[in-house]
What does this fold into?
Amino acid sequence: MEIKFCSNCGGNMKQGIPHGDDHMRAICTQCGFIHYLNPKVVVGCIPQWGDKILMCKRNIEPGKGKWTLPAGYLENGETMEAGAARETLEETRGMVNITGPCRLFNIPHVNQIYMMFRAELTSREFGPTPESTHVQLFQKEEIPWDNIAFSVIHKTLKDFFSEKHRGSHSFEIKTMEAPLPHG
Amino acid sequence: MEIKFCSNCGGNMKQGIPHGDDHMRAICTQCGFIHYLNPKVVVGCIPQWGDKILMCKRNIEPGKGKWTLPAGYLENGETMEAGAARETLEETRGMVNITGPCRLFNIPHVNQIYMMFRAELTSREFGPTPESTHVQLFQKEEIPWDNIAFSVIHKTLKDFFSEKHRGSHSFEIKTMEAPLPHG
Ligand SMILES: [Zn+2]
Ligand SMILES: [Zn+2]
It folds into this structure.
């Protein structure tokens, strides 16, 4: 998002390095207000029901028609765990208890931090929502591995199932690199 | 930060719930642009040198004159580990290797996520900076426990030293509640 006008006074912006700073910022030419752009936090979870996990088929871009885990932007005033549960409810109508941290991803090329939790559905109630055309439980072998919306979700699921197979869960931080341009 | 003018067109803003959303947002009355405000990520570390840790005395508000660990806002395009190392260099002139995650804090009342790593200084070189009047190595008993700038830093240090005493480090997520008003 480019900042063309000052959100404080409506004045025109210029690019510059503020005194004592070392990054280029958008600075208001009129009131001097400095606008900072920072990474956003995405929170989500792997909702478990027995040996199955809940996934949703996206009804919105990006990744429309592909499968994913419930996840979305953390809101002001919210804990990461509450945000992950809220997104799960919004996207799957499923209620979860967050049971622990699973994977944290740096995705610097899109200015995101992605926090994925392990979770347990509190009941077998779920279903389609405005954001998801289908909401479905899958065993590991049933997951549509070739039709997953985001590489960060693919990686989360692969790691989750290999840890489950091994019999213990861990927390790790990973960095996702920018995909290579198609050639 | 209140959004008074649209950063896209300079128009006046109104508060409302966009279609398909469930939170109040600042919406432009002129071009319809929706402005989202999201939590910011703070990254920092506990720089270790033998059995000592490096702390800095703040030269800027908030907490001017009090001691802290190096930490600051994650920048766009940066991994959390790189951000924590950069903040350490900026605030202490010390170079660190990030060795692992320590504590992650939800601080919903100030819309922050605070990620603290364990780290090791790569040399004994460090010193004051524009942001820190003093930069100093402390053994556990020497830490100015009663003069620490932020409760999240106090908690990180307490947890770090009790885990060190126990002989193994873990990663945990905690939530810091708003401080009670002075009465
Ligand atoms: Zn301005
Ligand atoms: Zn506008």
About this structure: Chain A is about 15% helix and 35% strand. Chain A has a mean pLDDT of 95. Chain A touches chain B at residues 1, 3-10, 20, 22-23, 35-41, 73-81, 90, 101, 104, 106, 108-109, 111, 113, 130, 171, 173, 175 (CB under 8 Å). Helices of chain A lie at 80-92, 151-166.
